[in-house]
Design goal:
It is built from 23 helices and 19 strands. It is of the alpha+beta class and 706 residues long. The strands form four sheets. Strands 9, 10, 11, 12, 13, 14, 15, 18 and 19 form a nine-stranded mixed beta sheet that branches. Strands 1, 2, 5, 6, 7 and 8 form a six-stranded mixed beta sheet that branches. Strand 10 and strand 11 form a beta hairpin. Helix 11 crosses helix 15. It starts with 12 loop residues before the first helix and ends with a helix.
């Protein structure tokens, strides 16, 4: 027998995973050891980046990109528009002989200069103040994007104004990660941990989305311009048979998913889980955990890649939170935890959680943070689309509560000074010899809970499907940092730290247990119970947006260096304007669709029906049925004209208002309400219109003709 070991060439996914990412392994292979070590220290926050290191990294990054066909580079950033932005520059530089060379300097890697006046700033920048900077996020890998322009090297960056004000979603996220790292390390040191040097918040986002045929998508102005249907009657069958969730994936969707996975894997994005969701042609993609800033970048790429791959397959990926009224909406489940660089998940309960004081302390800190800053979390998880979704089927209510399962029993026993009877190690006996006994998890899962403990992490289920996860994680990180700061202050002064830990857990859990709810979050009973507990229930995003500008919020973010007051005020203005513009566009699209196409089609149908009735009368045929249909149809058309006029009037009045907050409230209370009334009549009209007269693809087309 030969002792020779034969090494098979790597094939399949491992062969191409990360080929378009300037990942850690690529950095290790292409950078001198000394530079690689320096860069690792920079990424860990231990050192500042030097120009010398930047020059070496830039040269290696350029060579790697050129080998893969890149001609341009861009600083890829996330302004407050909700999408990513990029300005491309080529690598070419003229040489003295009239030719060109390919160059990329450390300065170009570190800093870019997009126009800061063309992005939302909420008053931080005037129209004539155009200078802004992008700054390389050294911890998030650069990547290659291929499109019709060719191959482009994309460098993840932060985006700030001339004076350093955050004009993006990345900058405050990185600041909040630093804040939590600082306070979590203080707690660990007080608990006796001397090995951890950094604590990172990790996120594994689950992305929900719909797929529809691209020609249907482009045939509907509402989907094309707003991402949701502003009119549309439910078909005879929706999701009530519950026959779509986890069902067999259709072939054309499976083909889309295969291509999507390959594109994401090439970027080094760990797409892990895919399945059918509850609504017809609704799906989910989940990725493996990574540091919060990397997870935020990856999720933006996931959404962008979904749209791009969908087009290849003549499909449109819908990321709106409620594209179809009457069926489930889409969210983004933000699975959040904390990990130290000595290998610990700080939210891992272990086999005996009742004895794991570190876990119980950090878990209690999160509970207190969520209770104290619930309205900030609700605000961060809001957008105009989420107002349609929260409280609906398969979505958490607008009330923030926490599901803890068995952990609640442990913390309750501690807070009451009672012994806890351990349930660890329990197996489920399934009653059939061919089925193995299954180990029972510490907690059940509660999909009606907005903030659920799910084993070794918390799942924040309110995050909107079409938005960045950054905003929610900024609040979550900062709120947790503040509570950990308070715990660290107490522990550092305590002579008996073990006793102080138990005291903190008991005291704080008793004070904040009101937010823990393990039952049905969709029930009316819970809404009533939450009110008795004093938990806020803010159903509209714009009603909680002012929270960002309140004194407690300003103090929180300023203390931890996440936002200055001006940055918070700017975000309130930006998001109020976003709400106004969104509803304005949706109302305008509705008016256009109803006035230009649906009502003319209905009028033509009525004229046709009247002609048939006259013909039948002449032939002495009973026309009672036709005349009833004509009368009922005429009533609906008349009502539609009345409601449409009300909507146009409400929209015109709203546009005239000056104060941004009052204007947003008017759009919610007047324009949005008028849209709802118009839709009721128009959808009723669609239900009686013959198919040949209805001018748009219907819900039946969109959800079932695939």
């Amino acid at each position: 027998m030969s002792d020779t070991i034969t090494t098979e060439p790597v094939s399949g996914v491992p062969a191409y995973f990360g080929i378009n990412s300037f990942s850690d392994s690529v950095q290790r292979a292409r950078l001198p050891k000394s530079v690689y070590k320096e860069l690792k220290k920079v990424q860990a926050g231990e050192k500042k980046l030097t120009q010398e290191v930047a020059e070496v990294v830039a040269n290696a990054m350029k060579d790697w990109a050129l080998e893969k066909g890149a001609t341009h580079f861009t600083h890829w950033f996330q302004p407050l528009t909700g999408i990513t932005a990029e300005k491309h520059d080529s690598f070419i530089s003229p040489s003295s002989d009239g030719k060109i060379i390919m160059e990329f300097s450390g300065k170009e890697l570190i800093q870019g200069e997009p126009d800061a006046s063309s992005f939302p700033s909420g008053g931080l920048r005037a129209t004539f103040e155009a200078r802004g900077y992008t700054a390389w996020d050294t911890a998030s890998p650069a990547f290659l994007k291929t499109d019709a322009t060719g191959v482009t090297l994309c460098i993840p960056t932060a985006f700030v104004g001339y004076h350093g004000e955050a004009l993006d979603k990345k900058t405050p996220l990185l600041r909040s990660m630093d804040a939590l790292n600082k306070q979590a390390l203080r707690v660990l040191r007080a608990l006796g941990n001397t090995t951890a040097t950094r604590v990172v918040t990790t996120v594994g986002p689950e992305q929900e989305y719909f797929l529809v045929k691209e020609d249907y998508f482009t045939s509907r102005p509402d989907l094309l311009l707003t991402g949701r249907t502003v009119v549309g009657a439910l078909p005879a069958k929706g999701q009530e048979l519950e026959d779509h969730y986890f069902a067999t994936i259709p072939d054309n969707v499976a083909s889309f998913m295969r291509d999507l996975n390959e594109e994401l894997w090439k970027l080094g994005i760990t797409a892990k889980t895919q399945h059918n969701e509850v609504a017809p042609h609704q799906y989910e993609l989940a990725v493996i955990f990574s540091a919060s800033n990397i997870a935020a970048d990856s999720n933006q790429l996931v959404m962008e890649t979904m749209r791009k791959v969908g087009t290849r397959h003549k499909l449109a990926a819908l990321l709106h939170e409620k594209p179809f009224a009457g069926v489930n909406g889409s969210g983004k489940h933000n699975n959040w935890s904390m990990a130290s660089d000595d290998g610990q998940n700080l939210l891992e309960p272990g086999k005996t959680p009742q004895e794991n004081t570190q876990f119980l302390l950090f878990c209690t800190a999160v509970i207190e943070a969520v209770d104290k800053y619930a309205l900030l979390l609700r605000t961060a998880a809001g957008n105009p689309g989420n107002d349609h979704r929260l409280g609906a089927n398969e979505a958490p209510p607008a009330i923030i509560s926490i599901f803890l399962g068995q952990v609640d029993e442990i913390l309750t026993s501690i807070s009451e000074g009672k012994p806890y009877a351990s349930k660890a190690g329990v197996n489920l006996e399934l009653g059939a010899t061919v089925l193995p006994d299954l180990p029972k998890d510490l907690t059940d899962r509660n999909r009606t809970s907005p903030f659920a403990f799910t084993g070794n992490k918390f799942e924040f289920r309110m995050v909107p499907s079409g938005d960045s996860i950054s905003g929610s994680n900024v609040v979550l990180n900062t709120a947790a940092a503040e509570i950990l700061c308070q715990y660290a202050d107490r522990l550092e002064k305590a002579s008996d730290k073990v006793a102080e830990v138990k005291k903190i857990i008991a005291e704080k859990y008793k004070a904040h247990k009101r937010i823990v709810f393990n039952g049905n979050g969709y029930s009316k009973e819970w809404e009533e119970e939450a009110a008795r507990r004093g938990l806020p229930n803010v159903k509209s995003w714009i009603d909680c947006l002012p929270e960002y500008s309140k004194d407690y919020s300003i103090e929180l973010f300023k203390k931890h260096g996440v936002f200055i007051p001006e940055e918070l005020h700017s975000r309130v203005e930006i998001y109020l304007e976003k709400y106004i513009k969104t509803i304005n566009i949706e109302a305008g699209v509705m008016i256009e669709m109803v006035k230009k196409n649906i009502l003319p089609a209905a009028t033509e149908w009525l004229a046709n029906l009247a002609g048939i009735s006259e013909t039948l009368k002449a032939a002495k045929v009973d026309v009672a049925a036709q005349e009833k249909e004509l009368k009922d149809g005429g009533v609906l058309v008349a009502k539609a004209y009345v409601e449409l006029a009300k909507l146009e009037s409400a929209l015109a009045a709203a546009k005239d208002l000056e104060d941004t907050h009052k204007k947003a409230i008017n759009y919610k209370e007047k324009v949005f309400s008028a849209m709802a009334e118009t839709r009721k009549v128009v959808d009723a009209l669609e239900a009686v219109l013959p198919a040949e007269f209805y001018p748009y693809p219907t819900y039946e087309d969109l959800l079932f003709r695939f």
